[in-house]
Design goal:
homodimer, about 200 residues, mainly alpha, Arc Repressor Mutant, subunit A, Tetracycline Repressor, domain 2, 10 helices, DNA-binding
Chain lengths: ~200, ~200
DNA sequence: GTTAAAAGTAATTAATCACTCACAAATGAA
DNA sequence: TTCATTTGTGAGTGATTAATTACTTTTAAC
């Protein structure tokens, strides 16, 4: 027999992410995933109810992992500007190490073909935006950010800049270092945030 | 018989864009396009060599149309900051009227499944980025932008912010007015550009 | 050691879909 | 009118692929 349910599940998730980078999602068939894991195609369905369920698990893995990396920075006390700085650096560094993330997150295949998966992604993004909004509010109270900023809108603009950058990185086949863009991006954004 | 080649071609392009908004690209089959145009499915292939050729035509239509709207602003003389302001307003207004654009441009289906289409999109984006870079250089010469800006990188950050915003709009099913975000986005970016 | 549950597979199915082909009808130039 | 070209179609093909089924093997708990 094979490995345990939990182990196989994780193997399938990892194989799916690896393949999403190598081939794009078109060739991300259950057969291709199975081949990479080293099991037969129907065995996939012993561990996941459907193909979509695999993608859902991948999205959740991404969300959980990202939260592990930057989650603390939202709740830790300290100057909000420094924390935002760190969030930008760490998020881009994290994504720079996991090319599958933009491929999966920005995939219309997930957004448009499965309303369920779409709300999973939206919920994740909403949570992020809310934390960011809260952080900007704190920064305004701490007088490190301009009191004229609309926290909610500002949070969404910052997110848009990050997401746009990551998307560009993905579209251009990862041909520049995402990590190296993090500090310049922060430098660029800073004047717009300062009082 | 039917209409002329050119007319049918345009009808197919328009049907494809309309469907990309309504259903997402999964259901964007040649059958669905044909149904919408009111012709039989094989007739599609009288006017386009392949399904990819349709998408290529759509991308080119998008690029041409966008260029018609904002192209002048790159070459017209005048203060660079005002021109950039107008570019942001007009681009977001234009995209706000054509929901198909983000659906098509940000589709991984196009980027990852067809190397040819991918380079079409990349070339378009490159052209845009170059013009923007040039505009920022002018702005620095005119002393309306900070001389410390790296024109190329700044252009890409601005593009990322715009693209991120448009992508968010698309992911959230167009549930906010893109046009209304344009002026606030410009207000947000301005402090980062000014000397 | 028995046995029930878990994990595995080969074979197949049913659906989808881009694309082809052989032929029909309309068009327009001669 | 004639006829070559263009536009159109119904019927089909071949390829792909998620999911099911019926069956086998392995594991681990008792």
């Amino acid at each position: 027999m094979g490995k345990s349910h939990e182990v196989r599940k994780q193997e399938i998730i990892e194989a799916t992410m690896a393949l999403s980078v190598e081939k794009g999602l078109k060739k991300l068939t259950t057969q291709a995933i199975a081949d990479r894991v080293g099991i037969a195609q129907p065995t996939i369905f012993r561990h996941f109810k459907s193909r979509d369920a695999i993608f859902g698990a991948v999205i959740n893995w991404v969300g959980d992992s990202l939260f592990k990396v930057i989650g603390d920075l939202f709740s830790t006390p300290g100057p909000a500007d420094e924390r935002l700085h760190q969030i930008i650096l760490k998020q881009l560094a994290f994504m720079g190490k996991h090319r599958a993330i933009p491929r999966v997150l920005f995939s219309d295949r997930l957004h448009l073909e499965s309303p369920k998966l779409k709300t999973v992604v939206q919920t994740m993004m909403d949570g992020y935006a809310q934390r960011l909004t809260r952080l900007i509010e704190e920064g305004i109270e701490q007088r490190v950010f301009s009191p004229e900023l609309e926290p909610d809108r500002t949070a969404r603009f910052i997110l848009a800049a990050i997401q746009g950058l990551v998307m560009r990185w993905s579209v251009y086949e990862f041909n520049f270092s995402l990590e190296e863009e993090a500090e310049p991006l922060w430098q660029f954004l800073q004047p717009s945030l300062r009082p």
